[in-house]
Description:
With about 375 residues, the chain is mainly alpha-helical. It contains 16 helices and five strands. It folds into two domains: about 5-120, no CATH class; about 145-160 and about 200-364, Intergrase catalytic core (hpI Integrase, Chain A), CATH 1.10.443. It has a three-stranded antiparallel β-sheet. A two-stranded antiparallel ribbon has the order 1-2.
Amino acid sequence: MSEREKVEGIVLIYQAVEDYLNERQRVAYRGHREKLIQWFATSGKNPDALEGYAKDTYYTYANIVCQFHRYVWGEKDRFTLDLDQDDAESYLRELVLSNEYSDSHLHNVKLALKAYFRFIGDDWKPDITIPSTSSASQPKDFVSEEERAALREAVLEYGTVPAYAGLDPEKRNDWKRELARRFGKPMDEIGRQDWDRANGFKYPTIMYASLDAGLRPVEVGRAKTYWVDAENCTLRIPAEESSKNKDNWTVSIRSDTAEYLKRWLQERHLYDKYDDNDHLWLTRHGNPYSGKSLRVLLDNLREIAGIERDFSWYAIRHSTGTYMAREEGLAAAQSQLRHQREETTMKYDNVPPKRRRDALDRMG
């Protein structure tokens, strides 16, 4: 295998980026990244004095910016080099709220992104304060027990339609018109199967599984049908598909979540977009879920639930870890959330899946 092209000792296009981009996009990205790395190395620290960063620093910054680009492409579901300050705020916020990274790394991310925006001629001043030596000052992004219960109730209501047989012809046509809009198909093609689809179990399983397992947005997008072990009320996530790619994970879920997943696995066979793939959930356009598409779902559920304040998908994960730690201890929370760090602590996790499942039932 040939060595990848480098500039200033840094790989220009990593394999994951190459696999994502087409040939024209790779040419555009390569030119942009080469200029960025050279700028980091020769004048990034003080452009007026032509003073570059130390090699270790610009190596770190270049890798961080690469991750930032990939994050934005995933959120927007397309390649772009036109990144703005909202993209940076969103990326930094998600890293902070994930509770997965050290303050030192978060501080480096902030500095790297500020340097990147200087490179493209912008001056980014992030709203989130991250000291380099003490704990990060995070936005209060948390879901209470009452809000968790309200989200569970809201998702059972979300998108449902009245019983087909219980509607008079006029009302039935009104609902057919609504379902035609929702599913992007002609009104005269709407039938009983579309009625069942509207009252299906896709959305309940996404929310219930995320509340139980603290699923990251990327894990919702990656989830496969063979993760589900409904009989044993668990999700079994292989190491090669884990977000952090360290270990195989066995994650407890509530019995009602397992029942909904069982029903969804039967239902998903009715939809053509699931033919020949193992994705557990796809959007109505046939794409894996992303932070952006989950944001739309969460906003709709908050409205139904009457939750007026705003919070992110990561707030669900954070609340799962907090309440699991309170109910069963830190080791159980680390196992449930599949943290890559504190490996030593996780090895001494003696809380069995059944006790973690019982904790989920008490948590709501």
